[in-house]
């Protein structure tokens, strides 16, 4: 599958959306739970049922949801405004909850949402025309991608994940995919499913993050892996390969590996190199540095990071990890301390503090 995707992507025309750094545009939302906690199986069954077999009333409601979603993601809005408006109008969050998400006063967020509404007020309450749909679809996919990422790894707050937020992004992605036979839509849905499949193993009993290499892969949601892989396989070769298909392919390689040692890092590196040329995203460069280190050694991976803005999220954490792999525990400790000092998510800071204590011999 990945070989076919790489071959197709080499003919890609540079008209995709740059990947957005996780957490730049959205802070953790403190959202009320609509339903009681439910199992992953029940949640997945509900999502599939709602997306694929709606009742007559449900179909009309889904149509309205899609219309509002496309309106909230109008190109005249900045990504930040589009996300805030989407969370309010489609996601059901209150203005106060969104304000906490962005770490701004409620009055400030109310003004921001109000201005966003005013900017799209002159637009018709209908799906965009065929001429407008392609550009609008890119905005929709970007907002859903950012929404899912913030739910999957909150950039602030006490918990690593916000299940309600990532679930909502998946639900909306299913609606868009059911209404739009576009390979990049399928790629996005595949990406979020393949990524969310690992969520049950991402934290230990205390809520502290567990690295991908150390996760119990038996806890992964293998039904989601199968669904995401099938979506990706169906999308490949149906049109121009975009960033979401490439990211989904990388996620699929991780999910298919029986162990961390069995991961096909050369294939992942090749995909990240394509993705970097496609998007020019510094976040992709960070991920390429990791893949480069796994293929060519930590010194080569660190050389990739030399050209990256040191203020970007995760830079210090990655440098610490690669310096430790290279055997330089002093530099690793320096970067772990710096990363811990900058962390705004409590769970991530707890993990980083533990790395500092470990390398410092038990005293940070």
Automatic annotation (TrEMBL):
UniProt cross-references to InterPro entries, sorted A to Z: DUF6596 (IPR046531), RNA_pol_sigma70_r4_t2 (IPR013249), RNA_pol_sigma_r3/r4-like (IPR013324), WH-like_DNA-bd_sf (IPR036388)
Keywords: Sigma factor, Transcription, Transcription regulation
Gene3D superfamilies: Winged helix-like DNA-binding domain superfamily/Winged helix DNA-binding domain
Domain DUF6596 intervals: 136-235
Pfam entry (one): Sigma70_r4_2
Composition bias type Basic and acidic residues, residue spans: 37-50
Domain of life assignment: Bacteria
Residues annotated as domain RNA polymerase sigma factor 70 region 4 type: 70-119
Protein name: RNA polymerase sigma factor
Region (Disordered): 37-60
Similarity comment: family membership: Belongs to the sigma-70 factor family. ECF subfamily.
